[in-house]
Amino acid sequence: MTTNYKYIYGPVASWRLGSSLGIDLLSQEEKICTFNCLYCQLGPTLCYTVKRQIFVPVKDIIKEINDLPPININYITFAGSGEPTLASNLGQTIKAVKAVSKVPIAVLTNSSLLHLNKVRQELLPADYVSVKLDAVSPDSLQAINDPAKAVCFEKLLSGIIKFRNQYQGWLALQLMFVNKNMQDVDKMINLIKQINPDEVQINTPLRGCAVKPLSKGIIIKIRSTIAAACKKAAIISVYDKNKTQAIYSISDAETLKRRGK
Ligand code: SF4
Questions:
Q1: Atom of ligand 1 nearest to the CA of 34
Q2: SS3 for 147-194, per residue?
Q3: Does residue 42's CB lie within 6 angstroms of at least one atom of ligand 1?
């Protein structure tokens, strides 16, 4: 069955979350983001912003959730075509979805707005938050994530640490490794220790994009180096694929591609 849901998509098989039904609170024709990552599957960022606004009313999301057929999902995940914390009704929507569904809520963020107390507060009711950190310095942030001018490395890192100290749910730290940062593992370990996440997710861009992924051998080596140094956190890598499962999607292939899936 293919449906015409406008804002929700999937479920998709996620190596991090299992069966994940996506909510795209931006849902615009173009990706809207605070970053322009060199590995972005959605292509270059044409609409850069750090300004939060409402893109989709909460009631429209809830209508689609209420209209869902019975499906088997592990998480309802706020992600999609850009940075979900740019939606200023993210917190309201998380609460509204929780009121109509018992499925745990996940949010995947690039961390760029976590320095804002309001954004951190809005994320607190989520059951699982994955925060991105690919860079170990202002220069590597520029080289890998090419952020909007208002985003700086120090604010981004301190935003993640502040959020860690407030958040009671499962905090995953996602590290995307490519050629440009594969030498930075030791510096990254220092940052992981400062952040103290529940889980470290070691990723490399296996889906089609402008840069090549690192090999399984390199990622396994990075994984064991980080695991040896950060014993308190669970460590997973995109090559583990242990949560991947056969999933029947309610979205067509074009919708999934637009959301970078
Ligand atoms: S990968 Fe994510 S954070 Fe980076 S530009 Fe694409 S949508 Fe934005």
A1: 8
A2: CCCCCCHHHHHHHHHHHHHHCCCEEEEEEECCHHHCCCHHHHHHHHHH
A3: yes
- What is the Cα–Cα distance from 255 to 40, expressed in whole angstroms? 17
249 pLDDT more than 80: no
- CA of 228 relative to ligand 1 center, distance in Å: 29
Using a 6 Å cutoff on CB, does residue 40 contact ligand 1?
Answer: yes
Domain range spanning residue 181? 8-258
* In the predicted structure, residue 2 carries a pLDDT above the cut 50: no
H or E stretch at 130: strand 128-132
* 136-175 pLDDT per residue, tens: 999 999 999 999 999 999 999 999 999 999 999 999 999 9
**Gap between the Cα atoms of 19 and 247, Å rounded:** 7
Global confidence as pTM: 0.94
Count up the domains in the chain and report the number: 1
- Amino acid identity of residue 96, one-letter, is A
Identify whether 3 is part of a domain: no
Residue with CA nearest ligand 1 atom 1: 40
Tokens of 38: 């060199």
Distance 160 CA to ligand 1 centre (A): 17
Q: Is 213 in the pocket of ligand 1 (CB under 6 A)?
A: no
Q: Is residue 2 part of a domain?
A: no
The whole-number average pLDDT for the span 27-39 is 95
70 Cα: distance to centroid of ligand 1 (angstroms): 31
Domain CATH for 43: 3.20.20.70
Tens of pLDDT, residue by residue over 71-82, are: 899 999 999 899
